[in-house]
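INFO batch 0412 | record 1 of 1 | parsing
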Amino acid sequence: MSRALDHLVIAARTLGEGAAYVRERLGVECAPGGKHPAMGTHNMLLSLGPEAYLEVIAVDPEAAAPARPRWFELDTPAMKARLASGPALVHWAERTTDLEREAAAYPVRLAIESFSRGPYRWRMALTADGSFPGGGGLPTLIQWDGPHPCAALPDSGVRLERLRHENGAPAADFAAPGGLRTIP
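INFO prediction complete | emitting tokens
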């Protein structure tokens, strides 16, 4: 089984707040993403190179409430309180070519769900309650069934240098215009 970093997740109360957070910390603009009707969210994206990206995600105020808890703990009181202080790097996803096998090997129960937006088709292994796998210590697993968003994103000039955990949450160092930048 092999996995690779697919994307980092910055959650925000609004996409505008999230885009400003990225601009202030990395000195670049995010590209428009799209909507996730099944989750009631929308996003913006930033290329981190040819195989990984940064996602800014927020609850879509125009979307209907989903039939299940939103991903990335966006419905939890703890996450809402955290985001009241501003956007945050909250999680990461790893890409696999055998989602079923990888998900079955996880120490937590996951359900595989399918999603699509425009030319993109993907499946993710998610917890039923919308929580992070392993309390945030394990990545969310994703498998792309077609093109990857990085192929269509403009090169931002930003590259991930290091992803680590600090106090139970992800933190990342980036090579960005103007030098090394950290997002705690």
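INFO post-check: Residues 3-183 form a domain with the 2,3-Dihydroxybiphenyl 1,2-Dioxygenase; domain 1 fold (CATH 3.10.180.10).
INFO record closed
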